[in-house]
Amino acid sequence: MTEGARYKRVIVFLAAVLLAACQQRMADQPRYEPLQKSEFFGDNRSARPAVEGAVARGALQNDELFYTGKIGGKEADTFPYPVTETMFRRGQERFNIYCSPCHDRTGRGEGLVVRRGYRPPPSLHIDRLRQAPAGHFFEVMTHGVGAMPDYAEQVPPEDRWAIAAYIRALQFSQQARLSDVPENERRRLAETKR
Predict the structure, then answer these.
(1) Percent of the chain scored above 70 by pLDDT?
(2) CA end-to-end span of the chain, whole Å?
(3) Residue 9, φ and ψ in degrees, nearest 5
(4) Euclidean distance between CA atoms 35 and 43, whole angstroms
């Protein structure tokens, strides 16, 4: 090894030692372990309670209709945004996943778990539920009722509204008359019967 190469190695080694000695020790600053006793605060707790009224970023729920299904504390019969075919399809998909095990795919309340002994839910086609506002279905999905558990953790609000819209479509489909079908669709149906 040449004298110049040996000299470069010594410089690199000394630079590495000097850089290692210049740490700011940010990782070793004073801190408390979770639930460790603290002499600093009067209640001796190191974990501080949340500031009253503080809301986590992205968690502000200031749209009463969207998050509760109510307007002025009463169940709303309107939807928080326009009902579209995409919303119906999403509602059907979510209904078939979360609701049909008890309510079955038609909403009659004869799902698989009911056939295996679980308490049957009311049919979604009874007068009381056909006349219930859309917010009622949102409320029941959010908080549960009777034997039905809440689905607030499993189903986000936009999907609960989509399910409520699909329930409305199911209810309408079971009560529809031929006169409710648009003329061009009636002709198409008549042609397929031939």
Answers:
(1) 94
(2) 98
(3) -65, -40
(4) 12
- C-alpha 125/C-alpha 74 separation (Å) is 22
Alpha-carbon distance 74 to 68, whole Å?
Answer: 10
Cα–Cα distance for residue pair 79/90, rounded to 1 Å: 15
Selection from 181, 179, 185 nearest residue 193 by Cα: 185
Token digits of residue 106: 């038609």
Say which residues have a Cβ less than 8 Å from residue 134's Cβ, sequence separation at least 6.
69, 76, 77, 78, 79, 161, 164, 165, 168
**Among 135, 156, 142, 153, residue whose Cα is nearest residue 80:** 135
Tell me the pLDDT tens digit for each residue of 75-115: 999 999 999 999 999 999 999 999 999 999 999 999 999 99
pTM metric for this prediction: 0.69
CATH of 81-175, one of 3.40.50.2000, 1.10.260.40, 1.10.760.10, 3.40.50.300: 1.10.760.10
